[in-house]
Amino acid sequence: QVLQRKDGICVDIHFETCRAVFHPFRSKSFPLYALYERVRRRDKDTAKNLRSRTNLLAELDSSNDIQNERGSKQQEEDVARIMKVSTPTVTKMRFFSEGSGSANDILCNLIARHLTSDLFHTQTAQLSVEHVDRHEGVFFI
Known about the structure:
By secondary structure, the protein is mostly helical. It has helices at residues 31-58, 69-84, 103-115, and strands at residues 2-5, 8-11, 131-132, 135-136.
């Protein structure tokens, strides 16, 4: 049974066994030990994912102008963790050819300012991360 409550997520495992024999989590050979370990590992992963999500959402409340090295490294780790559990969506945008000088940089900056403006009536913040794993570009939350 999995319950979502205000104080957290509760997983109850119920089964019948003789009282003298029931020590499922002391012996690794007991059949439910693997289930216990899997639930425990997923619980830890979920907690880390939620912490990363909370850290990134906190960027919406902070100023985009204040960026330090430690914050950038933490953001990179948080984005990498969230990207592992996210569904990717690819949008190909049309830019100038590579020989056009700084036109692509100017266009990229204009798009970034437009996305972080109040025109969409949603909170958006540009993260200080430039690349995560094999992904490179401008990251927003």
